[in-house]
Amino acid sequence: MIRFRNQRGAAARWLLWLALLVVGTAGALLASADNGGDREAVLLTVDGAIGPATVDYITRGIDAAEERGAEMVVLQLDTPGGLDSSMRSIIKHMLQSEVPVVTYVHPAGARAASAGTYMLYGSHVAAMTPATNLGSATPVQMGGGGLPGMDEEDLDELREEAEDEAEAENGNGGEQRDNGEDAVEPATEEELLDDDPEPRRGDDAMERKVLEDAVSYIRGLAERYDRNADWAEETVREGSNLTATAALEKNVIDFVADNLDDLLAQLDGHTVKLMSGERELVTEGIEIVRMDPDWRTELLSLITNPNIAYILMLIGIYGIIFELANPGAVYPGVIGSIALILAFFALQVMPINYAGLALMLLGMIFMIAEAFVPSFGALGIGGLVAFITGSVILWDDPNLNVALPLVVGTAIAIGLVSVWVLGRLFKLRGKKPATGHEEMIGMIGHAREDFERRGPVWVHSELWTAETTAPVREGQAVRVTAIDGLRLTVEPMEQDERAEGSGPA
After folding, report:
1. 173-185 burial string, b = 16+ CB within 10 Å, else e?
2. N or C: which end of the chain has fewer CB within 10 A?
3. Cα gap 501→494, rounded to integer Å
4. pLDDT tens profile 309-358
5. Region for 328 from its dihedrals, namely left if φ exceeds 0, alpha if ψ lies in -120 to 50, beta otherwise
6. How many C-beta atoms surround the C-beta of residue 172 within 10 A?
7. Helical segments of 173-243, H only
């Protein structure tokens, strides 16, 4: 009987544990279903030029969306363009993303120019708001040439290829040009009036290399997502632009939406192509999670701002100069070193024109040298001109130029400081020495006894041996005219001179 009751108790415990297990499993499944129902769309916002700070912000945003298991990333874009290297890094991250990236040119009046056009073509979904535009994707050539922000290695490779091509053309086509077989004929009237001219190929071998590289890149992006590759090539070669409506008609973008809610409604059920395969977007009831730029992005954006980088470089250079001129001051050296390192970081990631940097440094050296070398203003004026010229051409991208008022104001300030230093220097040179033997010249003392050639005098609270060319009486005032070692040369003073004389006796 007891054994039967024990068996019934064991069975009851097993049933209790089984019930708890079922309830726990059901709760976990319900929680999982609830989490799956809370679909999220991570919203990133880019307003300004594309640069290193933008790369950091977008890549971290996409990575965060992947970790959260978000349905998509919506990149709200308004940009005039930016650095080629930064643009390519962003697009590379978009292409490899496991979360669909929707680039949305918004609000009305925004644009996706230059690098922004490439980013639209590199997104899984491209959308625009009415009254926005895209285009002007022609590579900008300034200074060293090429797309803004291209790596030096890439430029060197393009230059070498361009030189080889030019040599080949000169070598192989020389006979034809000599024989007149390959001479270029003037354009006919029909060719000039032709509405469909030949596409732009570049004026020289180097420009052709850069242009063809950009064309191939954007056509590859267009073909990846079945968008209009011909217009993509046109905007690179000719700098063409399109409005939102025209872009939709030409199959350049996928949607035109008035606002974010309208965009999400249109995206519902849309199929996108990812590296892992196709995916259908589900946006009904989706939650928008904003990821605004944090302090790190703001700091990077601040440092890589051309005006800030310019100011940091000046602070760094002059801080180091002041520290070397006044060893032990500490503060100028510390502040200058930190500012210079931050400036070097900005110069490393931005398309700097080294000729402009050299002119800036040369100008500062000339203006500093003006305070020490009597050049009658030649060094100062030349330094001012070199400094302003170098500052204007410092960056290789028109979107990253230093503000002209800042350049002029800084140059004027440096020039005024140089003039002030020069004036103080001349003033100090004309001032009577306050220490050493030179200080004694012109001082007034008194004879301690009568003497005709040599005798003791009391000058500067000290007893000196003095020589004179005129007899001196005891107590008579004398003026020091020269000093030779420990012997003074003095001259006696008359009564009226004593009243006007000055100096310690």
Report:
1. eeeeeeeeeeeee
2. N
3. 10
4. 888 888 888 888 778 777 777 888 899 899 988 888 877 767 777 888 88
5. left
6. 9
7. 174-179, 189-192, 205-224, 229-238
